[in-house]
Write a structure and sequence with these properties.
Length: about 425
């Protein structure tokens, strides 16, 4: 019988030395005896999500680590990922977009953006979406807006002959006007039709939102109104090539981040979450570990994802990141892992000094019964560079896990798409 695998994915795990930590990284500064023990019992290396020195966004990196065909992962749009993560029903041919409720000026009809996040809206999101969804567009394209969290939402366009090759209406900063949606290529009739519909829908949505008593009350209280919708990241919903599906394995992802939950769903994994799971350092770690342990009873591969480590780096809080890593280590220490394949890594490196992703490699450890060991005795950026695994590209990560489980198939031509150098 093949072994089962637990993959611990600590978002933005890698970091650079920081003066607030005596020129150590958060992982070096943290006390992580469980991870150190696994490193001593297994092999270590560095993970390059794409290539050495190339920064990467979460959705691309995690897609590669979870076994999406590299060519598809590198062209992946966020809309379908976020829509899948929201639990929205999707069908091939739908176009999915990421959205923000936003605040715009209505003076002189210029629709200048005052706040791209509508004051980080805390309530009323479903009421706003219901009003927009009640609009009758009298066309063969059917829109559905679904709020996700705070000011964010996803929009699905359903109908025949749609195209996701359309531009964003979100300019990315305040002080600019909402951009008209346009086809990315001149002469693309499907994209032109989709863009024209989206422009009409967003205009009608803005008029609807502006008239709602909810927004009028916000205005009376001097609060930002959610009187516009901004769109970006349009993508076509379609089947994605998945190494998990190709190998007929049963897999699950335990997470609180809609992006990761959506990727799991798109790749044929069961997406498991709970109310206490979020993208912040205060996420319910004990609950995640308990759910991962339960999932390993009837899944071959379970991915446990923690977003809060990346959040700390983006907040330029290296001490908070080190403390969260210690909490993660303590929560994971209770797992009876001796008979499992266990891997610990991150999707990318996030620099706590600059608060952004960078292209430095990510620490990686792999511990499996009967697997090779190397001399590494602790788990951090410096020690992992001395490990025998070397530098593992993101597309090869899941292959490495499956090989340690003794379930990786021998190469054959139909698997070429899952090889980064040949796909």
């Amino acid at each position: 019988m093949s072994q089962r695998a637990l993959v611990v994915l600590l978002d933005g795990l890698g970091d650079l030395p920081h003066q607030d930590l005596q020129d150590q990284t958060p992982l070096q500064a943290a006390s992580t005896p469980w991870m150190d023990q696994l490193a001593a019992e297994g092999s270590c290396g560095w993970l390059d999500p794409i290539l050495p020195g190339v920064p990467v966004r979460t959705h691309t990196a995690v897609a590669l680590l979870l076994g999406m065909a590299p060519r598809e992962a590198l062209q992946l749009r966020r809309g379908p990922v976020e829509a899948a993560g929201s639990g929205m029903a999707l069908r091939p041919g739908d176009v999915a977009l990421r959205c923000n409720f936003a605040t715009v000026s209505t003076a002189n009809g210029n629709r200048k953006i005052l706040d791209r996040r509508a004051g980080r809206l805390q309530q009323g999101q479903q009421q706003l979406a219901d009003a927009v969804n009640a609009l009758c567009m009298e066309e063969e394209i059917h829109p559905l807006l679904q709020p996700t969290r705070v000011h964010r939402a996803v929009l699905k366009l359903s109908g025949a002959g749609l195209s996701a090759e359309i531009s964003d209406t979100d300019p990315g900063s305040e002080g600019q006007t909402i951009q008209a949606c346009r086809p990315r290529r001149a002469g693309d009739m499907a994209a032109d039709r989709t863009a024209r519909f989206l422009n009409r829908f967003l205009q009608a949505s803005g008029e609807c939102l502006q008239s709602l008593p909810f927004n009028q009350e916000l205005g009376r209280r001097g609060l930002p109104q959610a009187n516009a919708i901004l769109t970006r990241g349009a993508g076509l919903v379609r089947p994605f090539a998945s190494l998990i599906r190709e190998t007929n394995l049963k897999a699950a992802v335990v997470a609180g981040d809609p992006t990761v939950l959506g990727l799991g769903r798109l790749l044929g994994m069961e997406s498991l979450t709970a109310p206490g799971f979020n993208t912040l350092p205060n996420t319910d770690l004990d609950g995640k570990v308990a759910l991962a342990k339960e999932a390993l009873q009837n899944h071959d591969v379970v991915v446990l994802h923690v977003k809060g480590t990346d959040t700390c780096s983006h907040d330029r809080n290296p001490q908070g990141k080190a403390e969260l890593l210690e909490r993660c280590d303590r929560a994971l220490a209770d797992l009876p892992h001796q008979d499992w394949v266990v891997a610990v890594t991150g999707d990318h490196t996030t620099d706590s000094l600059k608060g952004d992703h960078c292209g430095a490699p990510v620490p990686l450890l792999l511990r499996a019964p009967g697997h090779r060991r190397d001399p590494v005795q602790s788990f951090h950026e410096g020690s992992c560079g001395q490990g025998h695994m070397g530098r593992v590209p993101g597309w090869s990560f899941l292959w490495t896990i499956l090989d340690a489980m003794r379930v990786a198939p021998n190469y054959r031509p139909r698997l070429q798409g899952f090889l980064g150098w040949a796909g």
